[in-house]
């Protein structure tokens, strides 16, 4: 009976999720750093939105010219413009994927900031930011450095968090898996939106030519 009484009155130990949340909840100077990271991401999202809007307008303009050239049986012009439009859509696809991925990062950081979520929420964003640097550097000068700074900031945040506790997790595997998942989700959404937004280019037969259309 005494044993049962001891077990009943003994304080319950927090579960693993409660311990993680307690360990990883932003405190003190960490909270402003997370807020700063979120604001910087929102700035990059806004820049990408402006670039995507310009690309969408350019896409419609070029496509209209292709249709006109096709109606006039101007095969050379239509082929040349089709190649130009293919490049525009390629850039649009890269930026669209980046925009979706950055938005996912921002949502995860907001969740971490608001709810003190676990390491599974935060760690994938670090690797994802580093992976995105090269794809954005070509189209958004300075964006790669911004992402690198944010990745270092988050890395420092997590290092301080782990250093201030005895927590030990298999975060590398989790980070890689979650980063890949985010990229796949973002790519799928971006591809779907691009497919819904842009019409297919008219099919043209190849016409050899040494001159360049201006």
Model description:
Helix 3 (30-71) runs antiparallel to helix 6 (143-163), helix 4 runs antiparallel to helix 5 and helix 5 packs antiparallel against helix 6. By secondary structure, the chain is mainly alpha-helical. The protein has seven helices and no strands. The chain has one domain (29-197). The chain has helices at residues 2-9, 16-24, 30-71, 75-115, 119-137, 143-163, 171-197.
Please outline what is shown here.
With 214 residues, the chain is an all-alpha fold. It has seven helices and no strands.
Class from secondary-structure proportions: mainly alpha
Which stretches are poorly predicted, pLDDT < 50 over at least 5 residues? 162-171, 204-214
Helix-residue proportion: over 70%
Euclidean distance between termini CA atoms? 93 Å
Tally of helical segments:
7
The ordered H/E elements are HHHHHHH
Q: Classify the beta-strand content into a percent band.
A: under 5%
Number of domains: 1
Protein name: Conserved protein implicated in secretion
Organism: uncultured marine thaumarchaeote KM3_50_F11
Region (Disordered): 1-24, 188-214
Biased composition (Polar residues): 201-214
Question: Which helices and strands occur, and which strands form pairs?
Answer:
Elements: H1 2-9, H2 16-24, H3 30-71, H4 75-115, H5 119-137, H6 143-163, H7 171-197
Helix pairs in contact: 3-4, 3-6, 4-5, 4-7, 5-6, 5-7
Name a few traits of the molecule.
78% helix; disordered C terminus; elongated; mainly alpha; 7 helices; 214 residues
